[in-house]
Design brief:
648 residues, four-stranded mixed β-sheet, alpha+beta, globular
Length: 648
Amino acid sequence: MSNQKLLKYISIVVVLSLIIIPAASSALSLAATSSCPTLYLGYVTKSPYQSLSTFNPNLFDGGLGGDFYGLIFAYTITLNVSNNEVIPCLISNWTFSPSNWEQVWQNETVNVTITLRHSGWANGQPVTAYDILATCLILTGLYSAPPYPNYTIVNNYTIIISEPPGKMSPILLSHTLICSIGLGEVALITSYQQYKPLIQQIESNWTQIQHGDTSLIKELRNELHNYIPPGPISANYNGPYYVASITPSEIVLEKNPYYFAASNVKFNKIIVYQYQSTSDFYAALLKGQISLDLPSVVSICPKVLSELPSCYKVINIPNPGGWALYFNFKNPWLKMVQVRQAIAYVLNRTSIALAGGYPKFTPVKVPNGIPCCFSYLKQFITPAVSNLNPYCTNLSKAKQLLESVGFTCKNGQWYTPNGTPFTLTILEPFTLSPCIYNMMNVIKDELTSFGIPTTYYVCTNVNVNHEHYDTGTGYDLVFQHWGGFCIGTVDWYLETQYLNGIPLNVTQWDGIVTLPNGTQVNVVKLYKETVSPNSTSQLIAANDEMAYALNYYLPALPLVFQACQIVVNTKQLNVPPSNSWFWQEYFYGIAGTAIYQLGFTDGFIQPVVTTTPPTTTVTSTLPVVDIAVGVIVVIIIIAAVAIIMRRR
């Protein structure tokens, strides 16, 4: 073979090496370190979603809602609950005006100017100030109570929220920020473009809505509940993930590439298994198939917690909330305070808690008293609330109260003053876990044994339940969540607002408490003093007055506290230690879901990365650039040799 041919072949081999070696090195590196991490969640529902083609993303019509905030809907802010510091998310900054707003807020409008960072819906459309407007108009105009803020769009990324006088208290600044720039702890759930016809209707009728036109508000709510966004489905999601596919067994969420912190999100995909029973979820959990579970999504009973595989870690968080019975005042007998108090004396809260499972559930010591699981709550435990009624089980006292308002007991059955048998029906609006099922049975059995035959039923259809609450029919009591965490104050929101007509009228109650001395207390108005006080002394006094009024009047009967237990699969997830402030983030957002967003965006929840070494026994520590430089040097040497050979 001639020298020229030899040099030609050598050059070809070297050039191919220059191309192949780096590619091979990169491929080996990718195979060794990347496995496209996937997170696995569980979701229990009697009516699984069937397919993407039949799925309506409208969360007000059964689309994925509260349990998925922080995943598919992004929060504007989150809150470091340990120090009350705001953590900006969809928004980059905010300002208040006038400059002396802290002095004039009780008598003047306070303007909050919000600037959004650049983020996007999963179809590529930017998140804009119009989306803030759309979400606020729905949340305030259709599901809150006047007076409402007014909204001014400055540009695509700036909106001014003008809050009415008396709302923006600097005394509870963290709470004030949550209610304004934090949209009341609700994620950004509405795309202006996807809901434009409905949003424009609300805008054009805003004056009537501000004046509390209930028939108009109900009409708009009905339209919202029947609305189908035009799509695509991805255009409805602005969180770290969006709904990509659905089968009867699972929902697949894929990473939203337009989310402002997409590069920080390490899980490419989330698979949400749809289980039709809690036992199916438990079976998957015991096999180690679930990565993470929040107690708001599936509340795991103590027995199963004790049987978890060693790969699971359980994070325990104290919680000033739990479960209560809400009375329907449209029932004329339950409208009597003596009857509600009698029921409180019948039910043994310790037995109910034990049925749910200790220590996950513990009995409420004083119904509607001041909880003491957080140090800041102790300031509200003053002599004014030191002698509230504990309603210890006392069947004789219950009998005395019923007889005092004309009830009679014959052959073990209580009869109302008009001679009809006194019976009760309890509605449970959530899928029953074994814990809740056991507690419901104890409640039913104790009331029935006392002579008040009681039944309960489960209805998870949101539209059906809302119809029940609108009309006050189909139930006598509702077993529902109660209490919770509210930064800097006591959380009376569910009992005096959300389940008392703003927006769900579960209790059918006007919010007026008539005390034994004849004094009347409007707890709806009193609530505002507990969240927007003009002084610390008013804050303490308002909370104490609320506790006293609700403890006597019992529009709801708190029964048990429920501890928060977050379950983490340590084979799949790297998470902070159990004593990290991060876990208290569960107290922020709807159903505690802000913890998802903060965990993925700020790196608190990371996949466990397992590296598999290449199968070849030859390894190199040289970077690809070094290899390429070496190859180039070889080419230069070969060229030099060729020149020398030609000169011979």
